[in-house]
Design goal:
alpha/beta, Rossmann fold, 245 residues, two-stranded antiparallel sheet, nine-stranded mixed sheet, 8 helices, homodimer, 27% helix, globular
């Protein structure tokens, strides 16, 4: 029996059988996490994966439906890490998923250097001083703004964790594409696959998925555009297929 | 009366009333040029524009339907520059368009530093050693391979020519996105607008349009995806609108 705190609720993992503990006032995962978990290359049978800035564990949970490898989530906020741990128990995934509480800047020291096949990260999107909805809880602020870690910290740590030839994938706002690719190259991660997410046909992209390989040769592929909603605000066929809904 | 050489023919400018002298064995413009000329920001009433690697003058001709400013094409191959000059005469655009024969690496020296509002460039796509269709004429080889100029030469020259706040737009293969944005930033051109061209729905992007502004603040927008063909190989509505066909 898993205990829910008063402000928590049990949500479905979009398109999956699993459940996840969320809280409207503390933290809920967004579509970005679901899309990143579906976009990233994963080993099917075995391997070691890490999710940085893991929040309430949405990406590790989603990944567990695609790989039999182990996934370690790293999260600095004790409250979110605790939610994630209870969700892992709830889905009976303790053998495959684990959460470590700690700072993304120390990921190599905490989890080991050069050991991992895959690192995912849905980092804070906004600069520390940028206003988004800063009327949110401190938990949201930390998850959404570069208060405790920057994009560079995330990319450096992903590079620290990866084996040679290992893959790392990020989701971010398209405005940060240049920072992403510049930093990836600086830390020996060559961008290899990119996909742009458009909310609707005819609209500008509002999300970017990008995957790089440690010490790979240059050569970027841009996957077909991904469009989330039809004009009538229902999910596109592409989106429904993507999520197995 | 304009003279055509034996291997030349008179083609329509896609979607426009104008005509252009082309040659299947020497050089013909491709869709890339038409899309770049439509994508780039232009001043409507007046201004000075340059097209680097102008070939047989397709981009200057296309631009003349969007702006009343003057457009100078720079082309190193005498045969192509001569074709372009005859096409300019043919369309009676001598008052607005001119061709200069010369090396893109010397663009600033030839045309003047810091004077221009807009610079376009459809550069050679392939590295000097890369194989594409190298069974083509030497004219094609020079136009398609970085034999006489590299991407860096083109970007450096665009930066040389531009006023502060001037705009420059390139078309290239998506594989070169990282080189493009890295070099643009190196030469003080901040990438601001990008559009990916997909041959069909569900296919990887095969072309990239990108525009930067000299000495601008960071912040990239990714425009809606542009899809050229329907599944049955007819032009999409988007493409027909784009070309005013």
């Amino acid at each position: 029996m898993i205990e829910l705190l008063p402000d928590e609720r049990l949500d479905h993992l979009l398109g999956k059988e699993g459940r996840i503990i969320q809280s409207p006032t503390v933290f809920s995962y967004s579509l970005d996490a679901a899309l990143l978990a579906q976009f990233v290359w994963v080993p099917i049978k075995q391997g070691q994966l890490v999710d940085l800035c893991a929040g309430n564990g949405a990406i590790p949970l989603f990944l567990s439906y695609r790989t039999q490898g182990t996934v370690t989530g790293l999260e600095i906020q004790p409250r979110l890490a605790a939610m994630a741990r209870r969700s892992i128990q709830l889905n009976d995934k303790q053998g495959q998923l684990k959460m470590v509480e700690g700072d993304v800047k120390e990921a190599g020291k905490l989890l080991g250097y050069g050991l991992y096949d895959v690192v995912t990260c849905n980092p804070p999107y906004f600069l520390a001083h940028e206003s988004s909805n800063r009327n949110m809880s401190e938990h949201y602020t930390i998850a959404r703004h570069e208060v405790l870690c920057t994009l560079e910290d995330c990319i450096r740590s992903a590079a620290d964790l990866l084996k040679q030839g290992g893959k790392t994938a990020f989701v971010h706002r398209p405005e940060r594409l240049l920072d992403l690719v510049t930093l990836m190259r600086e830390y020996r991660i060559e961008p290899k696959r990119m996909q742009l997410i458009y909310p609707k046909q005819g609209k500008e992209a509002n999300m970017l998925l990008i995957e790089g390989i440690k010490d790979a040769k240059p050569g970027l592929k841009v996957l077909p555009p991904f469009i989330v909603y039809e004009q009538d605000d229902t999910y596109t066929l592409q989106m429904r297929k993507h999520l197995d809904v």
